[in-house]
Amino acid sequence: MQFNIIRTDSNARACLFETQRGQVKTPAFLPVGTLGTVKAMAPEELEDMGAEMILCNTYHLYLRPGHEVISSLGGIHRFMNWDRPILSDSGGFQVFSLSALRKIEENGVHFKSHLDGSMHFIGPREAMDIQSALGSDIAMVLDDCPPYPSSYEYAQESLKRTTRWALQCKQLKHQEQALFGIIQGSLFQDLRKRSAEEIIDIGFDGYAAGGLSVGEPKEEMHEMIYVTAPLLPHDKPRYLMGIGDLKDVMLGVEAGFDMFDCVMPTRNARNGTLFTSKGKISIKREEFKADRGPLDPECGCYTCKKYSRGYLRHIFLSKEILSMRLNTIHNLYFYLHFFKDMRESIKEGTFHSFKKKWEAIL
Ligand SMILES: [Zn+2]
DSSP state, 232? Predict the structure, then answer.
């Protein structure tokens, strides 16, 4: 994996990283394909609108259909018909957030499946084996993601575990896969710093900030974004995990992060909340009933070119399958083009005015 910084504008970076399956321009938005599909979208459609890398969730794919099944069907790329880069998370975050029952031990986590209540175990070895069977291009280390709020003592214990697991993952790293380390430390500045030092000391292909957007107040999240970014190596990709609100994204880019993922554009689309150049709208509103105009006159997506707001409102209220498709096409197109424009602004040295403009709209 090759990583090059193309331009910087203050701390914001426009970078390019090349993988065996193609290049990724940053700042990059990774659409989330939780179960091996970005909901409602065909891979060709994602590619056409400019998606260069997607994220798949190890926890979900491990439980269903199982990594061995995916491996026997040719690996995750072949399985889902996406031949561009895929980043897999380690499963840690879902184990900590979804599983009803979990027991953390020094060598991993026992947890109960949210699907059928069966008991499972994931440790560093399992996380690496599963991700290797999936065959993702970028694997993530297994981390311990402390909830919000966490005491200093708990955050410290969790940090120690995260470092130990990261070291084990590094020792089990597969040659053909890039591996990213994850910085934890909850909302404590000194712990974030310590976590960064320990993880960087182990040495990874890229670095992620984890444990944010877990229910903490926005101001505290923003502070941690600003604290963590400068701690990470300049010459490696920096990934702000699970953050996708566009205002937060701009802040992350301003701090120096390169990669982002979030279910927000796809989930909101299915709920009828759509992003436009004038701000967010709810398509179910009465005012759109007989509106013949496009969803967003400034958008070039298939939905905006072909359908009226009145029609989109009608199929949403009628719960038609096409509504989810058309709304998702629009929201993802909007997100990917937002990122493209943001990258252009960094290359032109106008990121600050880009951010100011969008902060007033969003
Ligand atoms: Zn559109």
Answer: S
Which of 137, 144, 261, 296 is the catalytic position?
261
What distance in angstroms lies between residue 332's CA and the mean position of ligand 1's atoms? 9
Predicted TM-score (pTM) of the model is 0.97
Dig out the tokens for 245 from the structure: 């609100």
Question: What is the whole-number distance in angstroms between the Cα of residue 358 and the centre of ligand 1?
Answer: 17
Say whether 261 is catalytic: yes
The pLDDT averaged over each successive group of 10 residues in the chain (362 residues) is: 97 96 98 97 98 97 98 98 97 82 90 91 96 98 94 97 98 95 98 98 98 95 98 98 97 98 98 98 98 98 98 98 98 98 98 98 96
Ligand 1: centre distance to CA 142 (Å): 37
